[in-house]
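in:
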């Protein structure tokens, strides 16, 4: 009986933790076979006018961390970074935006105790009134959301063949190593399912 309880508890924890992962969105060129890709090379994004409005200021350390994380995840899948004649070019992009989110929380009354005089017992008697649900409070809070996008282009035609992105809440002004690794891992996992 105890073993069944532990197994059921473990299963519930796995279900809850599986729902905590980043959601990844994908666009791809259905005419291109992702399974034939074995080599890649990094390239720089072309800047357009007005692009800097929401773009995160990426320093060289953050740039290296993002590239190292992508490299590590792609190498685990048998891909290799090369300097000449790659199958695809890779480029990433990070956008950090402020979003207003409505948070609804339940509201309860304060518990209190009222004292009554009992004339038959000739003493004061406390009567406790517990807190009760009285409705919901709604607050608007501003959060920062970071979107990491990984774009893959065919090296022979320079056309975009695959793009994956994920958005997560950012606690600071920059992406942390943990946020970078979890977002990149989620994006590459989605790429593997499509390849």
């Amino acid at each position: 009986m105890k073993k069944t309880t532990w197994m059921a508890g473990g299963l519930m924890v796995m279900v809850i933790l599986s729902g905590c992962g980043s959601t990844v969105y994908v666009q791809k060129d259905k005419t291109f076979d992702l399974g034939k890709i074995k080599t890649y090379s990094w390239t720089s994004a072309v800047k357009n006018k007005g692009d800097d409005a929401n773009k995160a200021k990426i320093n060289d350390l953050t740039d290296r961390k993002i590239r190292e994380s992508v490299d590590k995840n792609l190498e685990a899948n048998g891909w290799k970074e090369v300097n000449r004649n790659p199958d695809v070019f890779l480029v990433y992009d990070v956008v950090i935006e402020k979003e207003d989110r409505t948070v609804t929380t339940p509201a309860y009354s304060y518990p209190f105790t009222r004292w009554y005089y009992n004339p038959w017992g000739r003493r004061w008697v406390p009567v406790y009134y517990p807190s009760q649900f009285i409705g919901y409070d709604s607050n608007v809070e501003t959060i920062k959301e970071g979107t990491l996008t990984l774009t893959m282009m065919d090296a022979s035609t320079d056309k975009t063949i695959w793009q994956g992105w994920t958005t997560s809440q950012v606690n600071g002004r920059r992406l942390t190593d943990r946020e970078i690794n979890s977002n990149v891992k989620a994006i590459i996992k989605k790429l593997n399912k499509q390849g």
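note: Confidence is low (pLDDT under 50) at residues 13-19.
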